[in-house]
């Protein structure tokens, strides 16, 4: 999907912006509901669809996806800093249908600056319900799907075919020039050793900067 392609590109931008490492406070996780059947659990690189409600320490709700805005759940990719660190850390190993309460210290949320309705140095509480989990662009499954000739590396042709397919699947008309530009952009960032292929190692997201 377009979203995953974009987040793939964004993830490489974020990955290059890793800072110094300080010992960090942890996320407190409380499982409120876990479904009886759990076919797979969320892991880094997965795309998750969630409803959430976030509140401050005094109980004020600063956002609820069910009642505010377009009232739609949100998609995000786990583990690439698309969301606050506290989510990346606190929403692993979740099942579809699971509901969690996570308490996130400011250092793993909006820190010293705060954001919008969130004052500086706020500890945040989120109630998060997972509606769906899909393979993200960084998953082993996605790599295999893209690697048409099974040689464990992605050629520009293979990446282009993948983009084309993803665009079509989401109702966008194929656009050769756009796809070629996106492929060049992806290879500029992902083909680290510049051999013209994205190896499975180059593809697999490195999440040590979390
Ligand atoms: Ca290949
Ligand atoms: Ca390469």
UniProtKB/TrEMBL annotation:
Signal peptide: 1-19
Pfam families registered for this protein in UniProt: FKBP_C (PF00254)
GO MF annotations in UniProt: calcium ion binding; peptidyl-prolyl cis-trans isomerase activity
SUPFAM superfamilies per the UniProt record, alphabetical: EF-hand (SSF47473), FKBP-like (SSF54534)
Keyword Endoplasmic reticulum: yes
GO CC field: endoplasmic reticulum
Keywords from the named record: Calcium, Disulfide bond, Endoplasmic reticulum, Glycoprotein, Isomerase, Metal-binding, Repeat, Rotamase, Signal
Domain EF-hand: 134-169, 178-210
Enzyme Commission code: 5.2.1.8
Domain PPIase FKBP-type: start-end pairs: 45-134
InterPro entries in the record: EF-hand-dom_pair, EF_Hand_1_Ca_BS, EF_hand_dom, PPIase_dom_sf, PPIase_FKBP, PPIase_FKBP_dom
Matches recorded under PROSITE patterns: EF_HAND_1 (PS00018), EF_HAND_2 (PS50222), FKBP_PPIASE (PS50059)
Catalytic activity from the UniProt record: [protein]-peptidylproline (omega=180) = [protein]-peptidylproline (omega=0)
Function, in words: PPIase which accelerates the folding of proteins during protein synthesis. Has a preference for substrates containing 4-hydroxylproline modifications, including type III collagen. May also target type VI and type X collagens.
Subunit structure comment from the entry: Monomer. Homodimer. Interacts with type III, type IV and type X collagens.
Record PANTHER family: PEPTIDYL-PROLYL CIS-TRANS ISOMERASE FKBP14, PEPTIDYL-PROLYL CIS-TRANS ISOMERASE FKBP7/14
This protein's name: peptidylprolyl isomerase
């Amino acid at each position: 999907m377009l979203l995953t392609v974009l987040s793939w590109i964004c993830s490489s931008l974020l990955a290059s912006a890793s800072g110094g490492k300080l010992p960090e406070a942890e996320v407190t996780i409380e499982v409120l509901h876990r479904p009886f059947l759990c076919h797979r659990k969320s892991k880094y690189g997965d795309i998750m669809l969630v409803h959430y409600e976030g509140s401050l320490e005094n109980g004020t709700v600063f956002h609820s996806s069910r009642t505010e805005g377009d009232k739609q759940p949100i998609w995000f990719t786990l583990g690439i800093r698309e969301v606050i660190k506290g989510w990346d850390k606190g929403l692993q190993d979740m099942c579809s249908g699971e509901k969690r309460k996570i308490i996130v210290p400011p250092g793993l949320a909006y820190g010293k600056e705060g954001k919008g309705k969130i004052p500086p140095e706020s500890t945040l509480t989120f109630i998060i319900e997972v509606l769906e989990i899909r393979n993200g662009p960084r998953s082993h499954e996605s790599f295999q799907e893209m690697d048409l000739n099974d040689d464990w590396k992605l050629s520009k042709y293979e990446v282009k075919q993948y983009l084309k397919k993803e665009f079509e699947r989401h109702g966008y008309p194929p656009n050769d020039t756009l796809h070629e530009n996106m492929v060049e952009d992806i290879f500029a960032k992902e083909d680290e050793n510049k051999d013209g292929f994205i190896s499975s190692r180059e593809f697999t997201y490195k999440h040590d900067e979390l």
